[in-house]
């Protein structure tokens, strides 16, 4: 099992963010209680990649506080952690305003080990859905 990494950030390739990882995020709720949750996220280092590098379509415009890179004719993506939004059509990532306290590599996806009735395990689901 992967272990949690504290006080570090994942490594990033040139002009790219980190691989997707699981993060523990701490949030102080309206009631003053500390809440922790686990979310999938990526990390962007300082001046590491631009919206052009990532192929982002900023249809709503670039936020006023994002720094422009004349050399790249694009905007730097601000340093920090961003939640991965897999099923949100308009955006892929959303900046995490809360404190990320630890991260770990993603586990491998589930794979069935037993075939049912001589077919693939997902044959039954396919028949039901179609």
Secondary-structure map:
Elements lengths: L20 E8 L5 E11 L6 H4 L13 E2 L4 E2 L4 E5 L8 E3 L3 E7 L17 H7 L1
Number of strands: 7
The succession of helices and strands, N to C, reads EEHEEEEEH
Describe the oligomeric state of these chains in a short phrase.
single chain
Tally of alpha and pi helices? 2
Q: Taking strands numbered 1, 2, ... along the chain, how are they ordered across the largest sheet?
A: 6-5-2-1-7
Determine the strand fraction and express it as a percent band.
25-35%
**What class would the helix/strand composition place it in?**
mainly beta
Low-confidence stretches: none
N- to C-terminal distance: 37 Å
Radius of gyration: 19 Å
Biggest sheet, open or closed, and with what strands and sense? 5 strands, antiparallel
* Average predicted confidence as pLDDT: 86
Helix content: under 10%
Shape annotation: globular
Could you name the key traits of this structure?
single chain; 130 residues; mainly beta; 5-stranded antiparallel β-sheet; two-stranded antiparallel sheet; 2 helices; 7 strands; 29% strand; globular
Question: What is this entry, summarized?
Answer:
The chain has helices at about 50-55, 125-130, and strands at about 20-30, 35-45, 70, 75, 80-85, 95, 100-105. The protein is mainly β.
Q: What would you note in describing this structure?
A:
The protein is mainly beta. The protein contains 2 helices and 7 strands. The strands form 2 sheets. A 5-stranded antiparallel sheet has the order 6-5-2-1-7, with no helix packed on it. The protein has a two-stranded antiparallel ribbon with strand order 3-4. Strand 5 (about 80-85) and strand 6 (about 95) form a beta hairpin. The longest helix is centred in the last third of the chain and has 7 residues, at about 125-130. The chain is globular and about 60 Å long. It starts with 20 loop residues before the first strand and ends with a helix. The relative contact order is 0.23.
